[in-house]
Structure formats: structure tokens, C-alpha cells
């Protein structure tokens, strides 16, 4: 028996070794797929439960299980699960009495990152009211647009944003909107203070009957897209979607014992759904930050024993730009969850701050398809497996970046992109992977639906993103449709050009885009850049970088020096205004440079050079 056991054990080791050689990610694939199956079964169970089991119910169960466990650390104060629950009861009762809220009423939250954001949302959930999460950076026209498209009749703001509310108050009053301020008092007519009412309200639990009609398909939230190409769109987030997003932490291996650091805005899906909702799903402790601070980041992590961090856009680069210290690897962070990190920054981050498992994601607030890079493969935004493609069908299709539309065959169907070829990602719209759309914007909703993709009558969600799959089934983000421009018959990915520009010693950040030139087809490359502190624009070094690493058609012919690059709340670069302003010196007050191929350097852009380009005396 012992001999047989030894032989079988040896065979098992050999088989495992063979599988690892054949597929280096076999074990990681199995672990991830098992986690996904388990989470999928949980969601299926929640769908069938009556009454419906929401994330709020998960929070209330956590309150019963560990009422004294810290839920939120914020600016030196700790709030337990029990405290947050009672505070949300008080807010709910105050809103019941003052705003006369009833199940189904939408309430807009215009709040900064603070604990009141969380318990106010919980209060609304207890009343069966969807919440519209307004970006606290928007003002005037955008604020009114975001507020009106979700159909809200009530807005709750924090004192810091009172001036922004006052700007649009006449319109809000005309529309009969109730405006509440989380303050003890307010002297402005038309704005009612709410904090004093909350303080006087009872903290007794509320009846479940108040949300009796809420189900998994009900709207839980309105979360706004960043609006890089116009006014923000209100993505409808159902309770099913809330559950699915909250599972991201679990899929990445986060447990109830972990401590999660939220430094992203709660008005966005990353901070609210993956961060806060994910923490509730896990029953864990969070550290909430008013806003991201690179200088305070690691000190906070050490102070609160943070084990899981969150990032988006350029936050890891901001951390890598901080002055080096001896204790950089002295922390307990083991997992980083987020998206949008460049390959070079990813490597530098690991080298400086230690063996942190970076779990890069690909997803969209309103989308029906997403990926997680659950391996340590640097640069990939995800990994494909048969289980994922079975439950959430998707495909990459060929895309014409000049016409900005899918390439179709003689039968009118889309053409699949080959392995290794960049294509447009589309996710099949099914009951299991729905696309609900945008509130109050049927036109934009319809634009995201793509018909007749692989067969007549099918329906897919158009992500608007260009991706690439390699032979190992890793997924790589290439660009967003519209960010890619075509010049000299070639497609240019702006992210790749930006990466090369930042290799120049003087360049801190680069925002690359294509601009039209009179008499030429397509768009030629241009970049708005910021410079490192104390540096002047080095024309020669920048020229050498773009010539050495970029083909002629991809080299940015015009460079615009800006004091700061305009960003959205989630660190995405705004390009629309820059594209409109083009390269004419008369339209731009910033320093402007032109790539002079004869002088082999960048030279200051002048009206004479501009006229020569327009008249085609200078060949581009």
C-alpha cells in the first residue's frame, strides 16, 4: 500500500509539473475559475431569494455578526459597523420626515469623500430609494444636466459644496427640487439644513416593508461616465450589477481579515462599487481618504495596517514620482486592485515598493463584459478562459479607426479580429450579461448597442475600446475609439506615443491626440505635455526619443506645453478642447513647438511655419 501511495504521489507531482510546463498559469486559472463559480452560484442564490437579498442586507448581517468591528477609519476617527448602521437609521428617519421620501424616489448625493456619504447611501437603500452619485467637481450646466437626467427630486449636499449648489439654485427651485445641506443651519432661502434633524431622529431600525418592491433588476444607483467627449451620461446600475461589482475583491483573493484603502472618489464605480460595496460584501475594515495623496499614502498604509490598496489612472505613477525613502517596502500591502497603469510604471512600482500582487482590471460602469488579470503578468488588463467566455460571450471585431465603425463583410456582418490583432471589444447582450443603458438618454443607449455582429439579429454592447488578445489568452488594452488617430494610412495608438514622450527627461505627463491639417486626410499627431519641476522643454532630447522609438507617421509633429493637464475625476485626460484648438499659434497661448525634420529638433512654432504648413510649402 505504501509503495502504491508513493507511486501515485509521484505521478501526481509529475502530472502537475507537466501541466505547469504546458500551461504556466494552470493553477492560477483553476483557482480563479473556482472562485468565479462560487461567486456566480451566490449571485444565482440571491436572485432566487424572496424577499430579495441586497447588499444592504449583507451589511445588516455584518452588523449583527460583528457590530463593534471597525467599518471606516477616517481622519483619526473609527466608525464601527454598529455605529454606521444606527447613523444611517437616523438619516433615513430624518429624510422620511423632511423630504417625504417613498420607495422608488431618486435622491442625488452631492458629497465629498467622508463617512456621511456611506451612511446617507445606506439610509436611502433602507427607504428603497436609488441614489444618483454626482461628481463633486462638476458645476453649473453639467451639474444641472447630471441632476435632471436621473429624475431626482431631492439633492443632498455637503457644506463645502454649498456655493456650487447656490449657482444652480434658481433653476432647482423652479423645478420644485428639495435641497438639503448636511449642516446644522443654513441661511440661504431654498436650502434646508439637515444635520440638526438627523441628530434629533431615532436610531431604531426601519421596517423592511419600506423597500418591499425592490428586486435584483431594480435601479440601485446612477453612476456617471467621466464625460471625456461631452456631458456625462448617467449609467443605470441595478442591484444585480452592484453585487457583481462587489465580487471583484473576492475574485482577487481579498478576505474579511484584510484592510482596504479607499482613496478614489465615491461618486465613481471604482471607489463606490469595487471599494466600498466590495468591503461590505467581505465584511471588512476600510480606510477612507478624502482624496488621494501620494505623500501621505504609505504612512497611512503603515498607520492602519492596510493590506489591500486601490488605484486608477495614474495613481501608481504619482507614487513612483515621490522621493525615495529607506522604508518604502515597510508595509503590509499585498494586493493592489485597479486599472490604467502603464507597463513601465507597473514594473517600477514593484521594484520600489515590493512584491504586491497588482490585479489590473478591464471594465466599464455600464458595460456587460470585464476582465481581471489574476496573474502577475505585467501589462495585461486581464486573462481569458473558457468559463468566462461561456457565461459572458464576447468577441473582438475588426474596426476602421478612420471611419470609426466596425468593418463588415458582404453579408453585413462584422469580421472577427485574429489573435494578436487589435480589435473592438463587444459583449453579447443576454439575460446573464445585460446592458441597461443610460438614464434619460435613449440616443446614447442605442449608440452602444451593436446589431448583426456575428449573425443576423444578434445584439452586442459596444465597449468603444480597442483590445488585443495574445496566444497565451492575455488581454491587452490598446486604446479607446476616438483616441486612436489615423495618419499616412496608419493607425496610431495615443497611449503608446505618450509612453515614449514621457521617456524624455523633461516631460512629466503627456496627452496625445490627432489634429486635422488643411489639405490632408486623417489627423496628425500632437501632444499636450507638462514638464518636471525645474525643467525647461528639452527640444533635442524629446526629438531623439520620438525619432528613436516611433515610426515617422506616429511622431507628434506639434507639442504644446501646459502648466497642468486637464483631467476628469478619475484621472482620464480630456482631449476634446485640445483637438478643437489644433496647432494654430493664434488659438493657443501656451508655448508651442514643431518637429523640424531638417533641423532634427523641435523648434518654436510660429505663424510663418503655420502658414507654410497650411499652404503645403512644408511637407508633413
From TrEMBL:
Gene3D superfamilies: 3.30.300.30, N-terminal domain of ligase-like. The keyword Ligase applies. One of its GO terms (cellular component) is plasma membrane. PROSITE patterns: AMP_BINDING. It is found in: Cell membrane. It catalyses: tetracosanoate + ATP + CoA = tetracosanoyl-CoA + AMP + diphosphate; a long-chain fatty acid + ATP + CoA = a long-chain fatty acyl-CoA + AMP + diphosphate; a very long-chain fatty acid + ATP + CoA = a very long-chain fatty acyl-CoA + AMP + diphosphate. Its EC number is 6.2.1.3. One of its GO terms (biological process) is long-chain fatty acid import into cell. It is a multi-pass membrane protein. It is an enzyme of class 6 (ligase). Belongs to the ATP-dependent AMP-binding enzyme family. This is long-chain-fatty-acid--CoA ligase.
Amino acid at each position: 500500500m505504501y509503495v502504491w501511495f508513493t507511486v501515485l504521489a509521484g505521478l501526481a507531482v509529475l502530472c502537475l509539473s507537466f501541466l505547469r510546463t504546458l500551461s504556466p498559469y494552470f493553477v492560477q486559472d483553476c483557482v480563479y475559475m473556482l472562485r468565479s463559480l462560487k461567486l456566480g452560484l451566490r449571485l444565482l442564490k440571491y436572485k432566487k431569494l424572496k424577499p430579495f437579498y441586497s447588499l444592504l442586507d449583507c451589511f445588516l448581517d455584518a452588523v449583527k455578526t460583528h457590530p463593534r468591528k471597525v467599518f471606516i477609519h477616517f481622519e483619526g476617527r473609527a466608525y464601527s459597523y454598529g455605529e454606521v448602521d444606527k447613523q444611517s437609521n437616523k438619516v433615513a428617519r430624518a429624510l422620511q420626515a423632511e423630504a417625504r421620501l417613498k420607495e422608488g424616489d431618486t435622491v442625488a448625493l452631492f458629497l465629498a469623500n467622508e463617512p456621511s456619504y456611506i451612511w446617507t447611501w445606506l439610509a436611502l437603500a433602507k427607504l428603497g430609494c436609488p441614489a444618483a452619485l454626482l461628481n463633486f467637481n462638476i458645476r453649473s450646466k453639467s451639474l444641472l444636466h447630471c441632476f435632471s437626467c436621473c429624475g431626482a427630486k431631492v439633492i443632498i449636499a455637503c457644506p463645502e459644496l454649498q456655493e456650487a449648489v447656490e449657482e444652480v439654485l434658481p433653476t432647482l427651485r423652479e423645478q420644485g427640487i428639495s435641497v438639503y445641506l448636511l449642516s446644522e443651519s443654513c441661511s440661504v432661502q431654498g436650502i434646508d439644513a439637515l444635520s440638526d434633524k438627523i441628530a434629533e431622529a431615532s436610531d431604531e431600525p426601519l421596517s423592511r416593508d419600506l423597500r418591499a418592491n425592490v428586486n435584483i433588476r431594480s435601479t440601485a444607483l446612477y453612476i456617471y461616465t467621466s464625460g471625456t467627449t461631452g456631458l456625462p451620461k448617467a449609467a443605470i446600475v441595478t442591484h444585480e450589477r452592484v453585487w457583481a461589482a462587489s465580487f471583484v475583491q473576492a475574485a482577487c483573493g481579498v478576505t474579511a481579515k484584510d484592510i482596504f484603502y479607499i482613496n478614489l472618489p465615491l461618486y465613481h464605480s471604482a471607489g463606490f462599487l469595487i471599494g466600498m460595496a466590495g468591503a461590505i460584501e467581505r465584511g471588512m475594515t476600510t480606510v477612507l481618504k478624502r482624496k488621494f495623496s501620494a505623500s501621505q499614502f504609505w504612512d497611512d498604509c503603515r498607520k492602519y495596517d492596510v493590506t489591500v490598496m486601490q488605484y486608477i489612472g495614474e495613481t501608481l505613477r504619482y507614487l513612483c514620482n515621490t522621493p525615495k525613502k529607506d522604508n518604502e517596502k515597510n508595509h503590509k500591502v499585498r494586493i493592489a486592485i485597479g486599472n490604467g497603469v502603464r507597463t513601465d510604471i507597473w514594473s517600477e512600482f514593484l521594484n520600489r515598493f515590493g512584491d504586491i500582487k497588482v490585479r489590473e482590471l478591464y471594465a466599464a460602469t455600464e458595460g456587460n463584459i470585464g476582465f481581471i488579470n489574476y496573474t502577475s503578468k505585467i501589462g495585461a488588463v486581464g486573462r481569458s478562459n473558457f468559463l468566462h467566455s461561456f457565461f459572458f460571450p464576447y468577441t473582438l471585431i475588426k474596426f476602421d479607426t478612420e471611419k470609426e465603425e466596425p468593418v463588415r463583410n458582404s453579408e453585413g456582418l462584422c469580421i472577427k479580429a485574429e489573435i494578436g490583432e487589435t480589435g473592438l471589444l463587444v459583449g453579447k447582450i443576454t439575460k446573464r450579461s445585460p446592458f441597461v443603458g443610460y438614464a434619460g438618454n435613449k440616443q446614447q443607449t442605442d449608440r452602444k448597442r451593436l446589431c448583426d455582429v456575428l449573425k443576423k439579429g444578434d445584439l452586442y454592447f459596444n465597449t468603444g475600446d480597442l483590445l488585443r488578445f495574445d496566444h497565451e489568452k492575455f488581454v491587452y488594452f490598446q486604446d479607446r475609439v476616438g483616441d486612436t488617430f489615423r495618419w499616412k494610412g496608419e493607425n496610431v495608438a495615443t497611449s503608446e506615443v505618450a509612453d515614449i514622450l514621457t521617456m524624455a527627461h523633461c516631460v512629466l505627463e503627456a496627452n496625445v491626440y490627432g489634429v486635422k491639417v488643411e489639405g490632408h486626410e486623417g489627423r496628425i499627431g500632437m501632444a499636450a505635455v507638462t514638464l518636471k519641476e525645474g525643467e525647461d522643454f528639452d527640444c533635442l532630447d524629446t526629438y531623439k526619443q520620438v525619432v528613436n522609438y516611433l515610426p515617422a507617421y506616429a511622431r507628434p509633429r506639434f507639442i504644446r506645453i501646459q502648466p497642468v493637464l486637464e483631467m476628469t475625476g478619475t484621472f482620464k485626460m480630456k482631449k476634446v478642447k485640445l483637438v478643437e484648438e489644433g496647432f494654430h499659434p493664434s488659438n493657443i497661448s501656451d508655448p508651442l513647438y514643431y518637429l523640424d525634420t531638417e533641423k532634427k529638433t523641435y523648434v518654436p512654432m510660429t505663424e510663418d511655419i503655420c502658414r507654410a504648413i497650411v499652404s503645403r510649402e512644408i511637407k508633413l
